[in-house]
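Two entries, shown back to back:
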Amino acid sequence: MSGFSPGARKFFAVVWLTGSSLAGCGPAMEPDAPDEAVGTGAQPLTEGAPLTVHDASCLQLQDQNTWSSAAAFMADVGPALGLPAVLQDLNRAGPMLTASTHPPATGYKGGFRWNDGDMGTSEWIPQALTAGVSGSTNTAIVSWHYALTSPDKGVRISVADISDMSASAVNYRHLLLVRPTSAGNFTAVAEHGGGLAWFGNYLYLADTSDGLRVFDLTQIRQVDTSTACETTLGKNGTVWCAYGYKYVLPQVSAYVMPASLTSPCRTKFSFLGKDTRGTVPAVLSGEYCNNGDTPCPYDGNTPGLGGRLYRWPVDAATNRLKTVGGAVKPERAYLMNEPNVQGVAPIMTTTATTSYWLSSTRYGGALFKVSTGASRKAYLSGSSQWPRMPEGMHATGSGTNLWTVTEGVTGVTAPALGGRVVFFVDQAAVD
């Protein structure tokens, strides 16, 4: 992919954006960032510039509050299974990457590739990554977008046991995400699957146009895997099917933007991240923007740079988003000043919530360290510092490892050359 040299900077002017939807003083300044300027109105957007604090006071999400009814709809499908049960039934093996097969990445420590079928399939494409601990098992969860249209199978996730990265392979299994529609029935989740964030028993999924979908990892159900089920979804006679997958993970609720919200207040949920820094944990969400077919409302004359990054507060006691009067407001928002962003992770070596890593397909693949106080630091695929086509990320709370997944270059299966991989680097090496 063509682009500017790593140190180059292009200066652009952005048009003045007006309208009542932009009114308001925005979120209060956080104690760790007293000198930040809030970006409202005309702003010169510069690629690689520090994050610009953005007034997001017009934006909110509303809880669809289907927590109880969704779980009740799945009761007839079978007993609820937790994630630990699935982790005892992993059926695929992804070989570990070696010195000769891993992609270039600054601070590389380890990783794995998928099995041969998953490396080469054109039906499913990896997108997002999150991680955590289930029982005593360190677990990575990766989402895959279904690339075909008839039928649209929606989104599947892979749960992988990453407890022992010195073994010869990582064991994993795919599950299909579903949305309950009525008692004893469900449908596919027709989304891109571009973002995941795991809090407690809840898995948050980016809903590009509307907000966040929430799935309950204690509500996994086993379904039929007979030949008749390979082309069927939902109830089929006396059994339930999921296109041949053995397990389904059901949606239990969603946080959506009111229909009355319009651009530029209305945003896109392209990718997600998990941030446990500060006094309030947060789901991070951001917009993918480029200078071609996917501009963003704040781009103006600076295509691709106006993508916004939001912090959505999480109630640490319930692991649900914090609501006030039935609405969730972002506690913080930024203009990223970066194009083609695909993922985000917090800089865990600081308690301040003003610095992040951004995963981008700019320059064919890049990792950007960004903050409100300094211009970005870039690790580029063209300089053998980062792999091609990086997507979602997860930073371990200990400040040790930064995990990421790659989408894979079309037609390439060799992991060192752009094939699909999951790997981690030393956070300190890219800090």
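entry 2 starts here
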Amino acid sequence: MASFAPLQRLVIAIAVLASFVTFLDGTVVNVALPAISRELGGGITTQQWVVDAYLITLSALILLAGTVSDAYGRVLVMRIGLIAFGVASLAVAAAPDPLVLIIARALQGAAGALLVPSSLALITATMRADVQSRAIGVWTAFTTAAQLVGPLLGGLFVDFLSWRFVFLINVIPIAVNLVLLSRLKLPEHPSGRRVDWWSGALCALGLGAVVFALIEQPLRGWGSPVIWVPGTVGVVLFGAFLWRQKSSTSPLLPMSLFRVRDFAWGNLATLFVYAALSLNGFVIGVYLQQGAGLPATAAGLASLPMTILMILVSSRAGAWAGRFGPRLFMTAGPLIMAVGAVMLLFVSEDFDYWWQVLPAMIVMGLGLSLTVAPLTAAILGAIDEAHSGIASAVNNAVARVAGLLVVAMISTIVGGTLNLAGFHSAAVVTAALLVLGGVVSWIGIRRNPAEEADAADR
């Protein structure tokens, strides 16, 4: 970050650390799920809830938190979020049973929702033009890295300490960030903007009820009132949330953004691609331990090739997308990833990581590296700078909701048990989602918005 001024470097460091802990905790848990299930019980249903309790509150409240950040001050909201996240992490680590663990995970997600939009808002409030773009690029790189290295860190803690220590990884970066925040002297001017609490409640309750129905449905069936009643109520409440966004004077989700072609289609592609990534991350982390018998660290290392390729290729893909437009890369990247997902069908009872999993991870990593930076550039580049913060928050919310819904449906996807047949079913669904992401990008994303603007001027 040598090209940034000292204040800008401090802001970027704070923003990266705040978001890093949030995204890390979303993926670090995957390799800990078998250990959690062995100690606390509950099987695949508990495993789903451990992941989705966090994603429900994070996804549902991230847009509300953006408004709260504007209304009450970004530094204050971030400080509250960091402290709350730390306390919730301690509660997760000390949980004596699945219920307490799930409640604490939901509180973690709520605290995490305060961190992501306020961190981006700090960047957009203190930087402009190309400096802001580069800062967002740094932020995106580190948050993506957090999602990819999470399984490896989780595996090390599970194998050499305990699954409980997985949730204490964040204590040190949280403490460091609180110190950095105390050094950040920014003139805060809370906007006094009205916070639409009702919309936040409708979104959270709607998503929560739908996810409850999806997770519990394999156990009870759609005919059970315990399933169809909350499922129906959840759909109605979420529909009311969307309707309220059209009439609200201070919407959490400005529907006008979706009239911008690249933003709308880019978020639809995000929905499919990140659903596939969440599904793949869950089944890889769990099956390689429960099915293939690998230790947690080895299961975490399975996705390391994707991280390495992201580091080596992602920045170049961003530069190529700036030159040739994002459409080609947003199409080719998911399709290459789909090939990698299909290659996981070679996994057999006679398990061999080097021949059955590693090649698939390399191909998926290459596709992911070609996808992430162009996808981010297409979505944020389609929206003017004044709305870049909310545009990024919306895209993050879409990615989290994608993961939330697909994890809720895992029991249905794998047939109730994550055995070899279930693993193969998940690989097929992952590939199908990625193909949809590539097709949507090809249909919806313009080849190069800059070229089209130049052509219009001529």
